[in-house]
Fold each of these.
Amino acid sequence: MRHHVKNVVAQTRTARTLLRPILASHLPLRVKLCVYKAYIRTRLTYAAPAWYALTSETSRKSLRAQQSLALRTITGAPRYVRNAVIARDLHIESLDDYVRRLSTSMFARADGAPSQHLRGIAPYHRRPPDPRGLPRDLIQK
C-alpha cells in the first residue's frame, strides 16, 4: 500500500498547493473548510474504507500530516499551535475517525442491501490475528 499512499499524498499536496491562494485568503472560515472538505479531504479518503486498514502506521502519519498542513494553512496558525488544537477548534474529526465513520456507513449499507452479492462484500471471518487487519476491522475499534 506504500505506493498507493505516496500517490494519494502527492495528489493531496498538489491540490493543497493549487488551492493555497483560497485557503490562505481572507474568505470566511466556513468557506475555506468547505473547500478543504470538497477538494482535499476527498483525495485523502477516496475509497479509504477498502485500503486504509491495510496501511502501515507510517503511511497513516503521512496522510494525517497532509490534513494538518491543510488545516494550518486555513487558519494561519503559527508553528507552536498543536495540530490537535487546530482540529478541535475547527470541529474537524481526525482522519482515522472520519475513515472509521465512512467504513461503518459503507458496511451498514452493504449489509442491508437487497442484493446478495453486496451483503457478502466483506464478511466476518474467523482467522488468526493479523496486526494490519482487514477493511471491516476498522469499524470494530
Amino acid sequence: MQLLRLYLAGLQNFTLMTDHQPLMPILNHYSLDAIENPRLQRLKEKISPYLFTAVWRAAKSLNIPDALSRAPLSHPTPEDEIAGAPSTTHLRTVMAVYAVTSSGKSPAQDADRTLQYLRDAARVDPVYTRLLDCVTSGFPSNRYDLHNSLLPYWKIRDELYADGDLVLFGARVIVPATLRHRTLSRLHDSHRGVEATKPRARQAVFWPGINSDIANTIGACESCQLLQPTQPQEPLMNDDNPTRPFESVSADFFTVAGKAFLVIVDRLSGWPVVVPCKGDTTASNTNRIFCHYFREVGVSLCLRADGGPQFTSNEFRDFMERWGVRHVITSPYYPQSNGHAEAAVKSMKHLILTTVPFGNIDCEEFD
C-alpha cells in the first residue's frame, strides 16, 4: 500500500484482498491502542492514512500477488524479456514523469549530474562492466569460476541488482574505481570522524573495503589530525572481588577544617573508618594506625592507596610485607584509579563539616 499511495491516498474506500485470515479483525476492527504486538502496531500505523475494507480470499484465487511474491525458478528467457519490455518502458516513463512533476523542473533541469558521472565511469570500467554482466545474467554456481576482480562481491551477490548501467547494493550505489577517491573526498567534506562518516556512506554508496578507505582518508587528513582530541582516559577496571568484609580495603589521607585524617574503607561493604592524624602523617604513624585497624577488624589481604609519600616509603612497604598484605599503588596522575577511597573522602568531609565543623570527631555527634 505504501508503494501505491499515489493511487490510494484520498479514496473514500477501496477493497484490500489478502489470503492471511488472522489479519482480518486487526485490519478491519482493531484500533492502534488495542494491539499489543509491536510488529502489528507498526503495520497498523503505516496503513492508518488509508480507508479500506479487508476481505479474505483463498491463496489459489490470488494468482498475481502470489506469483510476484515468489523468487523466480530460472532466469528470464529472451521471449520473456521481449514480452516484458513494453511494461518496463511504461513504468520507467511513469516514474520519470512523476519525478519531473513533483520537482517542478524540466527533464533537462532534473538530470542528476552525479548519477551521470557514475554511469559514464561505469561504462568504461572493465571490472564494473563485468560485475554488471554477472548481476544481470547471474553469478556462476562456484566462486572459483568467478573472475578474480569480482571475488569481493561473492558474499553479497544475492543482494546486488542492476538499475540501467549501475549496480546497487540495497539502496547504495556501487561506485566505479575511478570515482572512489572523489567520493571519499565528498564524504569527508564536513571533516567529521570515522564513526560519523561511516553512517553517511551507508546511506548512499558502497564498494568492497569502503570502511577501511574512510579510515585511511581521515587518518591522512592533516587538519583532522591537528585538531584531534587528546587521548581519552582508559576506563576504570576493577580487578578484585572481595568475598568477605575487610578482605580488601582502600585508604587515603585528606584535610578538612585544618586537620589531617586517614580514611580506610572496606571495598565490599563500603564501611569507612576515619582516624585523626593529629598533624603526624609520617609512615611511622601510618603503620601504627594500620596496626590498630588490623587488630580490630582483622588483617586485610589487599590495600589500595595512591602514590603518597607515606604509602611509597620503604618503611610502609616492609610493614605491609610483614603483615602479609598485598599493597597496590594506584596511578598518581589518575585519581579515578583510587576512586573508591576518593568517594569515601568526599563523604567523610561532608559528614565532618556538617556535624563537627571544627574537626573534632571524638564526640557523640560524629559517632
Amino acid sequence: MFHLEELKEFLRGLDLQTGFFTFRQIKAATNNFDAANKMGEGGFGSVYKGVLLDGTIIAVKQLLLNLCCIEGKQLLLVCEYMENNSLAHSLFGEGGLILDWKTRQRVCIGIAKGLAFLYEESTQKIVHIDIKATNILLDGNLNPKISDFGLAKLNEEENTYISTRVAGTM
C-alpha cells in the first residue's frame, strides 16, 4: 500500500489532468455528501456523485481518515464520472447494460493495454494487485479505466513483485 508521502511523490511523476477544488465546491456538488448521491462504498471510503457549477459530473471518494493518518482534515479524491459504472455491473446484469462479444474483447484489450502501460511504460512502474470487474470502470463509450489503486505497489526494477498473501475484496 502507498503511504501518503509515497503517494504524493508518485502523483508528481505522472502526467495528469488535474484541477483544484475547494471543500465548499465539493460539498455543494455532492449536496453535502447526501446519502442520495452515494454511489458505493469500498474499503477506503464512500463514493459520491456530484455536479459542479459548470455542469461537469464528478465522482468524489471520501477517504477514511483513520487509514491516512491525518487528523482534522477531509481527504477527498475527485475523479471523472464513469457513466457506465463498473464492468461488474455490466457483466452481471446489475446495470441493465449488455455487452456483446466484440465489446467485451475491446474492453479486455483496453484493460491489458492499461496494465502494460502501468507496469512497463509509465515513469513509475506500478503493479496493481487488485484487478477485478468491480475495479474496471466504463466511460460513456465503454472504454475501460482501471481504478482502485489502494493495494498497488511500485515495482522496483531489481525486485520482481511476488505475493502469496490474500489481499483485496473477496
Amino acid sequence: MEAIEESHIAVIIFSKDYASSEWCLEEVVKIMECKEQRNLTVLPVFYKVEPREMRKGRMTYQRALDKHESKFRKDSEKVKRWKEALFNAEIVKQVSNHLDRTLLHVAKHPVGIESQVVKVKSMLNLESNDDVVMVGLWGQGGIGKTTLAKALYNSIMTQFEGSCFLANVRETSKDCRDLATLQDILLKDTLLLQQRLEVSNVDKCINIIRSKLGRKKVLLILDDVDDLRQLNALAGEGEWFGNGSRIIITTRDKHLLTCQEIYQDHVYEVKALDDNQARELLGKHASQTHQIKIDLVNGALNYAKGLPLALEVLGSLLCGKTEDGVDKTVYKESSRKLRS
C-alpha cells in the first residue's frame, strides 16, 4: 500500500482470476483512491479477459465476487468497495501516450547538476497540490540554466498529468505568429494530442489554454525568456493551470521575473561551478591520450571562470592539442563561439 501511495503511475493487469484474490481487490481499491486524491495515473491492461467482465461483473468476475459475498456476509461493505473500484477503473486505449514521455538529453557531462536539482525541487514544494508555483532560474548566458531546467524536467515530469519543455523561447518567438506556434506546442504536449491545434491567434489560444489546462496538474518549463509578452502568452497567470502545477522560467533578466510576480524566495540564481567542478568538466571535454600540462589547464580554468559553456568550448578546443599547439587563438575561438 505504501508503494502505491509513492507511485506516479499504476499499471493494473486484469487477468481472468484477478477478482478471486482479496489482496488484488484491496490493491485496486487503494489505487483508485490514490487516483482521486493524489492524481495517480491509472493504466488498466486486460490480459485474456474482456473489460466488460470487470465493469459489469459478469462471468469469472461475477463468480469470484459471489464467493466473496458469501464469505463476508457480516462485512458486505468490503465487497461493495471492491465492486465500486472495479467498476471505476478506467479503460485506457492508448497506454503509450501516458508512458511515452521522452526524457530530455541534459548534457554530455552533467557536472554539478544534481545538487542544484535538489535545491530547486525544495523551492517547488512538490508535496503540495494546493496552488500553482512559479520558479525562476536566473543567471548569465552559458551558466547552465537550460541544462539545470532539463535535469529538473526529467526528475519530476512523471508527477504531473501533462508536461511541456518549451526550448529557446527567445529565438523562436520573434513575432505573434511564433508565439501562437509555441502556444500550440504547449497544448499538444501537455494534452498528449496527436497533432497541433493550429490556432494562429494568440489571444484566442490563451482562452483555450485556460479552458483545457485550468483543472490539469501540469509541468511547464519556459526556457530562455527575454520578453514579458512571451510570459503573457504562455503563462500569464497561475490561474491558467490546475492546482499542483509548476511553472519554471529560465532567463538572464531578473527584472522579468519580478514583473511576473516571482520574487526572491522563488528565484534560484544559477552560479558558476566551483574550482573542483570546473576542473572536472574541463577534463571531461578535453579528454585525450596526451596529458594536458598543468599550467595550460590552469590558464583555461582562469579564463572560463567556472562558466560551463566556456569550459565545454575550451575543453573541445584543447582536445588533442599539445602545449605547443595552443596559443591565444584558442581563446579567441572560444570567445567567438560563446558570443554565437
